[in-house]
Amino acid sequence: MNLAATHPPTSSFPVFAGSNLNAWQQTGLLAIPGGKGPLEHFRQDSLADPIVYAEFTSDLPQPRFGKRWRKAQAAEAQFWRTWRQNTLYKHISLEAFWQEVVEKTGGALPTGKVLDVGCGPVSVLNFCRPEDMQPFGVDPLAEVYARENLIECSEGLSPMPIAGLSAEKLPFVDGALDHVICFNVLDHVSDAPAVLSEIRRVLKPGGSLRVYVHTFTSWIKRFLFFDTPHTYHWDHEEFKHLLGDAGFQVDHELKEPKTFDLPESLLGKLTHFPYWVATKVAYTSYFRLRRD
């Protein structure tokens, strides 16, 4: 008898417990990644440990990501370790930054069960959420952020739970969520159409998706092969078509030139030359969408 076939191996993924993981467990909406069955057991090594492990038995294949995606993830982790040392970011107010993004993606954030896909350590839901929102995050680097104490949260709010998973397989049953947020993420993933398909799966019919990505003029894209942190480069219309092909209706969109608060001096511009170039060829594309 093939015991491996009879008893699939036990798998797990890390979860930064945050403030309301217990409430999520009680909803019955958490699932094996990809929605293939209930997710019931969580193991915590010690009370002082911010990480728990969601364990499940499954024959799901292990994801295989390309070399470029792995390099992009390494670059992402290093960015968050040092981002406050960058003169362009060291004085940024995250509350003000996220409030501006929220307005550009269609106004105040909704209530209900909300997922931030690719949330990073400074999720908008840790800074701008209404009181009656039940937030959750997914990010493949969640354990890095928790172990290295990189997660930030607005005063008066508690950080949300974050599952350490890539977005191609989300840990929810079908139609579990009222809303999904995916800010500056889709151009970093391994398989953008698969991520959008998963987002659509976990959204309720009529649920909303808010997205922003950096887009580019068509002619410059061929020269961006050196841009390690980004696995995709779209222009605005290409990205809009991608969203439509995934089954989303556009309720709101905005395209504006990419800007940075660059130093005025020539030396300052030379020091931050890639950022200066970005202001000439890059845009930010904002969307609020609805699952059909």
Automatic annotation (TrEMBL):
InterPro entries: Methyltransf_11, SAM-dependent_MTases_sf, Thiol_S-MT. GO terms for biological process: methylation. Residues 115-209 form the Methyltransferase type domain. Gene3D superfamilies: Vaccinia Virus protein VP39. This is Methyltransferase domain-containing protein. Pfam families: Methyltransf_11. Coiled coil: none annotated. Keywords: Methyltransferase, Transferase. SUPFAM superfamilies: S-adenosyl-L-methionine-dependent methyltransferases. It comes from Sulfidibacter corallicola. GO terms for molecular function: methyltransferase activity.
